[in-house]
Protein backbone atom coordinates (compact mmCIF):
# COMPACT_ATOMS: atom_id res chain seq x y z
CA UNK A 1 0.00 0.00 0.00
CA UNK A 2 1.27 3.44 -0.80
CA UNK A 3 2.26 5.34 2.32
CA UNK A 4 0.19 8.51 2.39
CA UNK A 5 2.19 10.80 4.67
CA UNK A 6 2.11 14.54 4.23
CA UNK A 7 5.08 16.52 5.57
CA UNK A 8 4.03 19.77 7.16
CA UNK A 9 7.06 21.40 8.84
CA UNK A 10 7.23 19.49 12.10
CA UNK A 11 3.49 18.82 12.27
CA UNK A 12 2.29 16.06 14.55
CA UNK A 13 1.50 12.74 12.90
CA UNK A 14 -2.06 11.43 13.00
CA UNK A 15 -2.94 7.94 11.75
CA UNK A 16 -6.28 7.67 9.94
CA UNK A 17 -7.81 4.18 9.94
CA UNK A 18 -10.57 4.34 7.32
CA UNK A 19 -11.46 1.98 4.47
CA UNK A 20 -13.38 4.57 2.45
CA UNK A 21 -10.84 6.47 0.29
CA UNK A 22 -13.13 9.47 -0.13
CA UNK A 23 -13.64 9.91 3.60
CA UNK A 24 -9.95 9.35 4.30
CA UNK A 25 -9.04 11.98 1.70
CA UNK A 26 -11.32 14.55 3.34
CA UNK A 27 -9.85 13.88 6.79
CA UNK A 28 -6.31 14.09 5.42
CA UNK A 29 -6.99 17.40 3.70
CA UNK A 30 -8.68 18.95 6.72
CA UNK A 31 -5.83 17.96 9.05
CA UNK A 32 -3.16 19.02 6.54
CA UNK A 33 -4.77 22.45 6.29
CA UNK A 34 -4.13 22.87 10.02
CA UNK A 35 -0.51 21.71 9.94
CA UNK A 36 -0.84 18.03 10.84
CA UNK A 37 0.89 15.18 9.05
CA UNK A 38 -1.26 12.16 8.26
CA UNK A 39 -0.79 8.46 7.58
CA UNK A 40 -3.72 6.65 6.00
CA UNK A 41 -4.31 2.99 6.89
CA UNK A 42 -7.05 1.09 5.04
CA UNK A 43 -7.61 -1.50 7.79
CA UNK A 44 -6.92 -2.32 11.42
CA UNK A 45 -4.24 -4.80 10.40
CA UNK A 46 -2.53 -2.19 8.25
CA UNK A 47 -2.35 0.18 11.23
CA UNK A 48 -1.06 -2.48 13.63
CA UNK A 49 1.69 -3.51 11.21
CA UNK A 50 2.88 0.08 10.80
CA UNK A 51 2.22 1.39 14.29
CA UNK A 52 5.73 1.04 15.70
CA UNK A 53 7.37 2.83 12.80
CA UNK A 54 4.71 5.52 12.52
CA UNK A 55 4.56 6.52 16.23
CA UNK A 56 1.48 8.77 15.78
CA UNK A 57 0.31 11.13 18.50
CA UNK A 58 -3.30 10.19 17.68
CA UNK A 59 -5.20 7.48 15.81
CA UNK A 60 -8.57 8.29 14.24
CA UNK A 61 -10.34 4.94 13.90
CA UNK A 62 -13.52 4.02 12.06
CA UNK A 63 -15.55 1.21 13.64
CA UNK A 64 -16.61 -0.42 10.35
CA UNK A 65 -13.24 -1.76 9.18
CA UNK A 66 -12.95 -4.57 6.59
CA UNK A 67 -10.76 -6.92 8.66
CA UNK A 68 -11.82 -6.34 12.28
CA UNK A 69 -14.20 -4.28 14.33
CA UNK A 70 -12.85 -0.83 15.15
CA UNK A 71 -13.29 -1.50 18.87
CA UNK A 72 -10.89 -4.46 18.60
CA UNK A 73 -8.44 -2.33 16.62
CA UNK A 74 -8.65 0.36 19.28
CA UNK A 75 -7.96 -2.13 22.09
CA UNK A 76 -4.94 -3.52 20.26
CA UNK A 77 -3.62 -0.02 19.63
CA UNK A 78 -4.10 0.82 23.29
CA UNK A 79 -2.11 -2.29 24.27
CA UNK A 80 0.82 -1.21 22.08
CA UNK A 81 1.04 2.55 22.48
CA UNK A 82 0.01 5.48 24.63
CA UNK A 83 -1.14 7.60 21.67
CA UNK A 84 -4.52 9.28 21.75
CA UNK A 85 -7.52 7.58 20.15
CA UNK A 86 -10.55 9.15 18.50
CA UNK A 87 -13.37 7.01 17.14
CA UNK A 88 -14.90 8.53 13.98
CA UNK A 89 -17.83 6.44 12.81
CA UNK A 90 -21.34 6.36 11.41
CA UNK A 91 -22.52 4.23 14.34
CA UNK A 92 -24.79 6.44 16.41
CA UNK A 93 -25.91 3.82 18.94
CA UNK A 94 -25.37 4.85 22.56
CA UNK A 95 -24.04 1.36 23.31
CA UNK A 96 -21.23 1.79 20.76
CA UNK A 97 -20.32 5.19 22.17
CA UNK A 98 -20.30 3.94 25.75
CA UNK A 99 -18.26 0.86 24.84
CA UNK A 100 -15.71 2.92 22.94
CA UNK A 101 -15.24 5.35 25.82
CA UNK A 102 -15.26 2.52 28.37
CA UNK A 103 -12.43 0.78 26.55
CA UNK A 104 -10.20 3.83 26.41
CA UNK A 105 -11.11 6.11 23.50
CA UNK A 106 -10.42 9.78 24.18
CA UNK A 107 -13.38 10.93 22.11
CA UNK A 108 -16.20 9.59 19.91
CA UNK A 109 -17.42 11.55 16.89
CA UNK A 110 -20.11 10.75 14.36
CA UNK A 111 -20.09 10.94 10.56
CA UNK A 112 -20.91 13.05 8.69
CA UNK A 113 -18.70 15.53 10.52
CA UNK A 114 -18.02 19.23 10.40
CA UNK A 115 -14.32 19.69 9.49
CA UNK A 116 -13.72 22.50 11.98
CA UNK A 117 -15.25 20.45 14.76
CA UNK A 118 -13.01 17.51 13.88
CA UNK A 119 -9.92 19.71 14.14
CA UNK A 120 -11.18 21.24 17.40
CA UNK A 121 -11.66 17.80 18.94
CA UNK A 122 -8.27 16.58 17.74
CA UNK A 123 -6.60 19.64 19.25
CA UNK A 124 -8.56 19.18 22.47
CA UNK A 125 -7.34 15.59 22.85
CA UNK A 126 -3.75 16.62 22.22
CA UNK A 127 -3.97 19.56 24.64
CA UNK A 128 -5.33 17.34 27.38
CA UNK A 129 -2.55 14.84 26.83
CA UNK A 130 0.14 17.53 26.82
CA UNK A 131 -1.14 19.41 29.85
CA UNK A 132 1.55 19.46 32.50
CA UNK A 133 0.29 18.13 35.81
CA UNK A 134 0.24 20.44 38.84
CA UNK A 135 2.49 17.86 40.51
CA UNK A 136 5.80 16.53 39.13
CA UNK A 137 5.12 13.27 37.25
CA UNK A 138 7.85 11.43 39.18
CA UNK A 139 5.70 11.58 42.32
CA UNK A 140 3.22 9.10 43.71
CA UNK A 141 -0.15 10.06 45.19
CA UNK A 142 -1.09 7.97 48.23
CA UNK A 143 -4.70 7.78 49.41
CA UNK A 144 -6.64 5.09 51.27
CA UNK A 145 -4.92 1.81 50.42
CA UNK A 146 -3.86 3.01 46.97
CA UNK A 147 -0.68 4.42 45.41
CA UNK A 148 -1.03 6.20 42.06
CA UNK A 149 2.20 6.63 40.10
CA UNK A 150 1.76 9.68 37.88
CA UNK A 151 4.83 8.77 35.85
CA UNK A 152 3.57 5.46 34.46
CA UNK A 153 -0.20 5.59 35.13
CA UNK A 154 -0.15 2.62 37.51
CA UNK A 155 -2.51 2.24 40.44
CA UNK A 156 -1.30 -0.17 43.14
CA UNK A 157 -3.05 -1.53 46.23
CA UNK A 158 -1.52 -2.72 49.49
CA UNK A 159 -2.50 -6.28 48.61
CA UNK A 160 -0.29 -6.14 45.51
CA UNK A 161 -3.18 -5.56 43.11
CA UNK A 162 -2.04 -3.31 40.27
CA UNK A 163 -3.91 -1.63 37.43
CA UNK A 164 -2.43 0.18 34.44
CA UNK A 165 -4.87 3.01 33.82
CA UNK A 166 -5.81 4.24 30.37
CA UNK A 167 -4.73 7.77 29.56
CA UNK A 168 -8.28 9.03 30.07
CA UNK A 169 -8.55 7.34 33.48
CA UNK A 170 -5.11 8.59 34.55
CA UNK A 171 -5.91 12.17 33.49
CA UNK A 172 -9.09 12.04 35.53
CA UNK A 173 -7.43 10.60 38.64
CA UNK A 174 -4.60 13.12 38.29
CA UNK A 175 -7.09 15.97 38.55
CA UNK A 176 -8.75 14.35 41.58
CA UNK A 177 -5.54 13.77 43.59
CA UNK A 178 -4.40 17.32 42.88
CA UNK A 179 -7.72 18.72 44.12
CA UNK A 180 -8.92 16.46 46.97
CA UNK A 181 -11.96 17.33 49.08
CA UNK A 182 -13.15 19.92 46.59
CA UNK A 183 -16.25 19.80 44.42
CA UNK A 184 -15.07 19.72 40.81
CA UNK A 185 -17.37 20.64 37.96
CA UNK A 186 -17.58 18.41 34.89
CA UNK A 187 -15.78 21.04 32.80
CA UNK A 188 -12.78 20.95 35.18
CA UNK A 189 -12.60 17.17 34.99
CA UNK A 190 -12.67 17.18 31.19
CA UNK A 191 -9.77 19.61 31.00
CA UNK A 192 -9.79 21.76 27.86
CA UNK A 193 -12.50 19.82 26.08
CA UNK A 194 -15.77 21.64 25.51
CA UNK A 195 -18.54 19.83 27.40
CA UNK A 196 -22.20 20.11 26.58
CA UNK A 197 -24.90 19.34 29.17
CA UNK A 198 -25.77 16.16 27.27
CA UNK A 199 -22.18 14.87 27.04
CA UNK A 200 -21.92 11.78 29.22
CA UNK A 201 -18.28 10.91 28.47
CA UNK A 202 -17.12 12.11 31.88
CA UNK A 203 -19.73 9.96 33.62
CA UNK A 204 -18.51 6.90 31.72
CA UNK A 205 -14.94 7.60 32.82
CA UNK A 206 -16.00 8.18 36.43
CA UNK A 207 -17.80 4.83 36.40
CA UNK A 208 -14.76 3.08 34.94
CA UNK A 209 -12.43 4.59 37.54
CA UNK A 210 -14.80 3.78 40.39
CA UNK A 211 -14.77 0.10 39.44
CA UNK A 212 -11.01 0.08 39.97
CA UNK A 213 -10.94 2.14 43.18
CA UNK A 214 -14.09 1.24 45.04
CA UNK A 215 -14.91 -2.10 46.68
CA UNK A 216 -18.61 -1.17 46.56
CA UNK A 217 -19.44 0.99 43.56
CA UNK A 218 -23.07 1.36 44.69
CA UNK A 219 -21.78 3.17 47.79
CA UNK A 220 -18.51 4.83 46.71
CA UNK A 221 -16.13 6.04 49.39
CA UNK A 222 -13.69 8.03 47.21
CA UNK A 223 -15.54 9.59 44.27
CA UNK A 224 -18.78 11.14 45.42
CA UNK A 225 -21.44 12.55 43.11
CA UNK A 226 -22.65 15.98 44.18
CA UNK A 227 -25.88 16.30 42.24
CA UNK A 228 -26.17 19.54 40.32
CA UNK A 229 -22.59 20.52 41.14
CA UNK A 230 -20.08 17.88 40.02
CA UNK A 231 -17.88 15.31 41.74
CA UNK A 232 -15.96 15.25 45.01
CA UNK A 233 -12.78 13.21 45.64
CA UNK A 234 -13.13 12.48 49.33
CA UNK A 235 -9.67 11.38 50.44
CA UNK A 236 -6.57 12.54 52.29
CA UNK A 237 -3.78 12.58 49.71
CA UNK A 238 -0.09 12.42 50.60
CA UNK A 239 2.84 12.41 48.21
CA UNK A 240 5.92 10.21 47.89
CA UNK A 241 8.70 9.90 45.34
CA UNK A 242 8.71 7.11 42.77
CA UNK A 243 11.11 4.90 44.71
CA UNK A 244 10.10 1.69 46.50
CA UNK A 245 6.97 1.75 48.61
CA UNK A 246 7.44 2.32 52.32
CA UNK A 247 7.53 -0.77 54.43
TrEMBL record:
Pfam families: Response_reg (PF00072), Trans_reg_C (PF00486). It comes from the Bacteria. The keyword Phosphoprotein applies. Keywords: DNA-binding, Phosphoprotein, Transcription, Transcription regulation, Two-component regulatory system. Transmembrane segments: none annotated. Residues 138-235 form the OmpR/PhoB-type domain. Residues 13-126 form the Response regulatory domain. The modification 4-aspartylphosphate is found at residue 62. The keyword Hydrolase does not apply. Residues 138-235 bind DNA. PROSITE patterns: OMPR_PHOB, RESPONSE_REGULATORY. PANTHER family: DNA-BINDING DUAL TRANSCRIPTIONAL REGULATOR OMPR, REGULATOR OF RPOS. This is Response regulator transcription factor. It comes from Azonexus hydrophilus.
Amino acid sequence: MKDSVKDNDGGKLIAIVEDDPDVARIIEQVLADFGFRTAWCRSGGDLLRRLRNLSPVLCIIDLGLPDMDGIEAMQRVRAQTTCGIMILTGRAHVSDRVMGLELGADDYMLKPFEPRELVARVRSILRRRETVSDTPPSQIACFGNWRFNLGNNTLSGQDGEEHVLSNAEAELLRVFVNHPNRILQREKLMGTRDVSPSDRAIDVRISRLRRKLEPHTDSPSFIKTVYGAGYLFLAAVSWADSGPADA
